Amino acid sequence: MASINSFWILSLALLFLASPLLQVAMCQSDSDGAVDATDEASDIGIVGDDAQDYGGETFTSAPGIETISVFPKNSARLVTAGEDTELLVGVKNNGESSLNVVAIRASVHLPFDHRMLVQNLTAQIFNNGSVPSSAQATFPYLFAVSKFLQPGTFDLVGSIVYEIEDNPYQTTFFNGTIEVVEAGGFLSIESVFLVTLGAALLVLLGLWIHGQIQNLSKKTKRAPKVEVGTRSIDASTDEWLQGTAYAQSLSSKSKKKK
């Protein structure tokens, strides 16, 4: 258990300290002490013309091989379309034989269906990427998604291809989501659309409130005024009083005044 914890701690340290110049630093061996990589560090991980490329072939994973990966200084996994993104891959060889890393490759898929391939990314081929038994190493992988890829969430599947005693194997080191964003722009097309839509809704709301206030003001101005005091009475409005004692009283008063 202590050995496993030590592996992950050392791997994370290596992943953040690894050079972006496609060099791999060999870590301390668990059984034989430190590995002297002074003469080998300049060659490990350098792409060579004579390196074996297995293309799109698929292989099984060898027993005893552990991997870990991290996006350095990019924990949000934001990938800018058309620009290089760095991914560091840590490998620990718990097997009995030395392994030789051949290549790192990856592909982009739709998140809801891995059978829907979006893009096969360029493979990174290595020369002299040897990892002895009970040793660990870190390999950088630079990739770029198409600049025409629409921003959004996608699944990235990354595998490392290696040889053990001339037999090819591969291990998947990453299978998760990434967020593709547009290059050069602070706001995506979706963000601009949402901002524009929100502004339009606010303008419409303001116009509606203004119209309601004007209608209320007009109704207030049209309200009839109530006059207090003596006023003339229109006979047409008092037709319902004809024949009553009140009407007769008014009639007699009128005659007396004459």
UniProtKB/TrEMBL annotation:
It is a single-pass type I membrane protein. Residues 1-27 form the signal peptide. The chain crosses the membrane at residues 192-211. GO terms for cellular component: endoplasmic reticulum membrane. InterPro entries: TRAP_alpha (IPR005595). It is found in: Endoplasmic reticulum membrane. Pfam families: TRAP_alpha. Its main location: endoplasmic reticulum. Keywords: Calcium, Endoplasmic reticulum, Membrane, Signal, Transmembrane, Transmembrane helix. TRAP proteins are part of a complex whose function is to bind calcium to the ER membrane and thereby regulate the retention of ER resident proteins. May be involved in the recycling of the translocation apparatus after completion of the translocation process or may function as a membrane-bound chaperone facilitating folding of translocated proteins. Shows a remarkable charge distribution with the N-terminus being highly negatively charged, and the cytoplasmic C-terminus positively charged. Heterotetramer of TRAP-alpha, TRAP-beta, TRAP-delta and TRAP-gamma. Belongs to the TRAP-alpha family. This is Translocon-associated protein subunit alpha. It comes from Lotus japonicus (Lotus corniculatus var. japonicus).
